[in-house]
TrEMBL record:
Biased composition (Low complexity): 316-327, 362-379
Domain Protein kinase: 10-293
Keywords tagged on the record: ATP-binding, Kinase, Nucleotide-binding, Transferase
Region feature Disordered, mapped onto this chain: 296-415
Biased composition (Basic and acidic residues): 349-361, 394-415
GO MF terms, alphabetically ordered: ATP binding; protein kinase activity
Protein name: Protein kinase domain-containing protein
Compositional bias (Pro residues): 380-389
């Protein structure tokens, strides 16, 4: 195929390329005054009708027949004029010329929004719902897209439209649920592929064709939802090459905790290892009924499972470990230790010594301070002030620091 050729009635008007084409070469074509996207498959090759019979020819004929049947079956089920198919970019023609297969779709604008995560929550909701509805249309007729990833979704906004929508393209790798191609022939993307798809490709005995169902798309949609809402895929241990590999190994994906509780629960279910544990697309759409679920939340510490921090949280040596967001310490709390309810630092600030209470005073004279205990500068001895009422300070708040500072007069205005 080269520019200027006429193939199947389509005149090629651009230089063919393999850019993002996988096992295909594509170009733009023209027929009857309309422009089309013409794709040439590099394999399989269809044996000539007059080819001499041989074992290898019979195998090639069988592969070609299965290839044709799969594409024609999908085209028969997904009609361009089907109700609700406005966001599906479907094939209009499929044929072979000589030993090579070709597929044709209408030429469309292939520009796509680069950063869907920058959209407002309501716009994100509309985007995800249009994508979900397109998948639901496939799944309702037992068709698996088979290669769901951002490259095959065009995020666009029509002139005069209020919201961006998602157009689903490239059904070359689609198949009927439970009837995928052989492991050597099945396509897909290792990053967005489902755990059972990965094991099927690796010829794991625990996975057969019947295990590759519409749940394959649900796993990919869960990953893409995380990407569209946060700008990143869920994180996983670097030992694994893909989310599916991590899930197959029994690890959980690290979801962004800024996501709402509703979305976090939904994505955990959508990325489950067992296909039967994943929700249907109808559940996905129902969860998006309220646009607020697509709002990112900056949670307070301790209210959600945080991502691994760069280092351990700092705290005063010997202080109690905070148990929640209310256990934070501050300068103000340090200055009012007699009334604070949070954890007490080991060494209080020396600039505001407290008046010792009767409960603080020992029965014997105070012992000299140890070298590790900060002691205020010595002052002339003075009579001890009268004892305060026992209720002014709890009896359990005793410390060596207060004993050492007990012979000082309280500063005016101190409590």
């Amino acid at each position: 195929m080269k520019q200027g050729d006429v193939i199947g009635g389509y005149r090629i008007i651009s230089e063919p390329t393999n850019a993002n084409g996988g096992k295909c070469i594509w170009a733009f074509g023209e027929k009857g005054g309309h422009q089309y996207f013409v794709k040439r498959f590099l394999e399989p090759k269809r044996p000539r009708d007059d080819a001499a019979d041989s074992p290898s020819v019979r195998i090639r004929r069988q592969l070609a027949r299965e290839f044709e049947d799969r594409h024609r079956t999908i085209m028969d089920r997904l009609r361009p004029d089907a109700r609700g198919g406005g966001n599906l970019v479907l094939a209009t023609d499929f044929f072979h010329e000589g030993s090579t297969y070709y597929k044709v779709t209408e030429r469309i604008d292939t520009t796509s929004l680069e950063k869907p995560q920058a959209l407002e929550p309501r716009n994100k909701t509309v985007l995800l719902k249009t994508l979900g509805n397109s998948l639901k249309q496939l799944h309702d007729i037992d068709v698996v897209h088979g290669d769901l990833k951002p490259l095959n979704v065009l995020v666009q906004k029509r002139d005069g439209a209020a919201f961006h929508t998602a157009k689903l393209i490239d059904f070359d790798d689609s198949y009927v649920s439970g009837k995928p191609p052989e492991p050597d022939d099945i396509a897909g993307d290792s990053v967005y592929g489902a755990p059972e798809w990965r094991r099927y490709m690796q010829r794991d005995d625990s996975v057969g064709p019947q295990h590759l169902t519409c749940a394959v798309d649900v796993f990919a949609l869960g990953l893409m939802t995380h990407l569209y809402l946060t700008g990143e895929l869920p994180h996983h241990d670097s030992r694994y090459g893909s989310p599916a590999d991590a899930v197959n190994a029994g690890d959980s994906l690290d979801l962004d905790t800024r996501l709402s509780d509703e979305i976090l629960g939904l994505l955990r279910a959508m990325t489950a290892r067992a296909p039967g544990s994943r929700p249907r697309i109808a559940t996905f759409l129902k969860a998006l009924s309220d646009p607020k679920v697509c709002t990112l939340q900056h949670r307070r510490p301790g209210t959600g499972k945080a991502k691994p921090a760069a280092g351990p949280p700092t705290s005063a040596p010997g202080s109690a470990k905070p148990s929640g967001p209310g256990a934070r310490t501050s300068r103000i709390k340090a200055k009012n230790l007699t009334s604070a309810s949070g954890p007490r630092p080991k060494t209080p600030p020396p600039e505001r010594p407290r008046t010792p209470t009767e409960a603080d005073r020992p029965a014997t004279p105070a012992a000299p301070a140890t070298p590790s205990t900060p002691v205020a500068p010595a002052t002339p001895a003075s009579p001890a002030p009268p004892p305060s009422p026992a209720g002014d300070a709890p009896a359990e708040r005793t410390s060596r620091v207060r004993i050492n500072l007990g012979d000082r007069r309280p500063r005016p205005g101190s409590s």
